Amino acid sequence: MATLPSPLLCLALLFLIAAARADDVSRDEDEDAPKIPGCSNKFQLLSNSVALAKRGDCAFTNKAVVAQFGGAAGLLVINDNEDLYKMVCTENDTSLNVTIPVVMIPKSAGDKFKDSLANGARVEVLLYSPNRPVADISAIFVGLIAVGTIVCASLWSEFIACEQVDERYNQLTRKDQPAGMSSREDSEKEILEINARGAIIFVIAASAFLLLLFYFMSSWFVWLLIVLFCIGGTEGMHVCLVALISRISRDCSQKTITLPLFGEVLVLSVVVLPFCAAFAIVWAASQHASYAWIGQDVLGICLMITVLQMARLPNIKVASALLSCAFVYDIFWVFISPLIFHESVMIAVARGDNNGGEAIPMLLRIPRFFDPWGGYDMIGFGDILFPGLLVAFSYRYDRANKKGIWNGFFLWLTVGYAFGLFLTYLALYLMDGHGQPALLYLVPCTLGLIIILGWLRGELNDLWNYGKSRTGNDAVEA
User: Fold this and answer.
1) In which broad location class does this protein mainly occur, judging by the first location in its UniProt entry (predicted)?
2) 2: left (phi > 0), else alpha (psi -120 to 50), else beta?
3) Cβ(440)–Cβ(465) under 8 Å?
4) Is the per-residue pLDDT at 361 higher than 90?
């Protein structure tokens, strides 16, 4: 029995490699500033006029020079959204003599300032530098969500979709169903089995797409990505909800209806799909709201779980090709691209300076709850999907070879992925918030770990060539 047909979610992989990092905000202090009882923060009172400017295409240093030349005592730059970013200057601008404080403020604060000035009110500005926590609890939540998404996707087929993993996982069958229905579902189920050539082609295509974003980023282009994300998120949420409800109530998975063009589909699928579409539309319409991150994370998690069900690695040979290419890809576009393009392409795309204030949605984000400067801790979809493919393979390998939790690979790769995330955030802290290629730490902690464990256990050859004898027709090679 089929659910409603969907777009090929494997194409969404190309749009899920964006990584984002939230930078710190520069802070200015004044030793002679007045003190407020009960507050140890340092203040600076500006007695002269402060200029107010919108963030645009010109450099922050140009804005500062113009404001200072005009006699302003300071400059407030209104950001395009609620996030705050570190304002930096290029190497050619380091010799500029800017003596006034320049501060970025969120869009909401800037709107209040403009409304007050438009109504003839007098606005006084008091700059202060609150103490920031060394680490915010949101980073822990981001890590837990990333690890939880991979674990959930790995266990989904067996415990939620009720698929049995036989030896060499040649056959995927539904439990507790008639044989005819099972074979029909298997014939309709498409699994994208990645091969080494497809892995290399994918990374090359992802690099070309990243350059496209770098050179042609604009608000309409970001909105195109948002629409694609909503389509993929809707289908991902639809697949997950149908599977969950069918798991809870088997009666819901038996009732069908015949629709024009679609044929025989589940009634449950027809009911759930409009809800999922409405959820995505509401998120897109309110994505600038303070609570929008919840909807984005829900859609993103459902999409990644679905993609990890459709795309599978057959063995460690293919995994090595894919993750090694992704490893080089991440390092090149973060650390080496500034030597060619004069700035980090990955960070420039993630920061989105020229996108009209719209943010690329291909990432999970959680607000920094206890950080007075606000902002978000984020992780890109690619940092979850690439290692997630390997972790999901390790679970299928353990189950097919009847391995326990301790002598298998799944548990240790999950721990390795979590440790890789810890190293990523540690590097972010040590590098003062500068963007880091997460796969630089995640690939050695997952691919490197399974290779070492396989070699020590004498199973590396089997892992390397696993699945070559597979004869099932339920896979499509990339």
Assistant:
1) membrane
2) beta
3) no
4) no
Q: Which of 102, 63, 99 is nearest to 84 (CA)?
A: 102
Spatial CA neighbour of 172 closest among 269, 303, 329, 182: 182
Q: What pLDDT, in 10s, does the model give residues 173-223?
A: 333 444 444 444 443 456 788 888 888 888 888 888 888 888 877 778 888
Secondary-structure breakdown of the chain: helix, strand, coil percentages, each rounded to the nearest 5 = 55, 10, 35
Q: What is the pTM of this model?
A: 0.74
**Average pLDDT over every residue of 84-89:** 69
In DSSP notation, 422-477 reads HHHHHHHHHTTT----THHHHHIIIIIHHHHHHHHHT-HHHHHTTTTT---SSEEE
CA torsion 30-58-344-74 (nearest 10°) is 0
Write out the CATH class of domain 39-125: alpha beta
Amino acid identity, position 283: W
Three-class DSSP category at 42: strand
What one-character-per-residue DSSP string does 55-99 give? --SS-HHHHHHHHHHTT-SEEEEEPSSS--------GGGTT----
Sequence-ordered list of residues with C-beta below 8 angstroms from that of 169, at least 6 positions apart, any chain: 396, 399, 400, 467, 470
Q: Which two tokens stand for residue 133?
A: 């926590």
Distance CA 46, CA 222 (A): 38
Does 462 qualify as catalytic in the annotation?
no
Q: Any catalytic annotation for residue 383?
A: yes
Given the residues 23, 80, 136, 330, select the one marked as catalytic: 330
The domain spans of the chain are 39-125, 138-164+193-468
Q: Lowest-pLDDT range, 172-181, 309-318, 437-446?
A: 172-181
Q: Which of 297, 371, 383, 398 is catalytic?
A: 383
Q: In terms of residues, how long is the chain?
A: 478
Closest-CA residue to 104 (of 40, 55, 168, 162):
55
Spell out the residues 6+ positions from residue 239 whose beta carbon is closer than 8 angstroms to its own. 3, 6, 302, 306, 309
User: Each residue of 240-292: pLDDT tens digit?
Assistant: 999 999 888 877 767 888 878 777 888 888 899 999 999 999 999 998 888 99
